[in-house]
Request: fold
Amino acid sequence: MPNYYLYVYSPSDFVGGLPNEQGAAAAGSPTFSLTLVSGATPTLIEVSDGDNNFDEVANNQTLVDAVNIDGTSYAAGTSVVSAYDLINTSTGHQVTSVHFNLSGYSQGAVHGLISTVPMVAGQTYTFNVERTSHQQTNEYDEFVACFTTGTRLKVPGGRRAIEELQVGDRVWTLDDGFQRVRWIGSQTVEASGALAPVCLKKGFLGLKRDILLSQQHRVMMGGPQAMLHLGVDQALSAAIHLCAGDSAVVQPGGTVTYWHVMFDQHQIVDAEGLLTESLLVNGMSLDGLGRDSRDEILQLFPDLASSELFQPARPLLRRHETAALLN
Reply:
């Protein structure tokens, strides 16, 4: 059966929690207001389902991997069903509540919420319509899966979301096997202009699902065309240079959190099946990280204050070189 990805916000991610399910809908009456607490981040789950509809009454919607939501663990194979929908008819924004290990017309407390748009911590969202989620044709593809937070890197035994990694954790690298993380950090910015992310679509360059990268984040290109045009079999291209078709598009709007992970040297890692770079530390990248992050890196790698310590793991492509490969 096909597998689908959903980002689930837990009840504790919201000020005052979430409305209970009551009579196949949300307890209470519109307008509903939901506010994400500071620091709220969703949990990525993978659901196996026989079709593309996420429904309230279904016996074939199950977790592919174990997850933990608000301190409760749900094993692989646990049923996952929807409960109620809340909709803002002005914007089209819809959220759908989730139940684990229950089936069909469950009542009481819900276990989480999924959203058709990325939700921002600290922001309040209003919904003027409520309804049961049963037989509403809520397709998995309607719910956002393009969070930079939540991108999973290959680690021993499987994959782990980048925001869950800590210094000292081991991550798979193309050239040197499993290497320990030396530094990890994040920045939340307005997703506009040069800071708007590039969404790379599922299937492109081996991707298992859609992911977001910053415009200058580089990904691996290669094959016979690279050897023909560049004389090398592998090289790195900035994500923005890949936006020549439907497989890679700039996605502005709202805010985005970019994560950086660094090793003892520049590495190629596996992010959702895509071969992409770790942080390449040089003067320009240090200036863009913010003072606290810059100071922390310089404490770890003092030589960076006066020289470029890291050498690129692969040649870096220019825009026209990437265009030649894409063509």
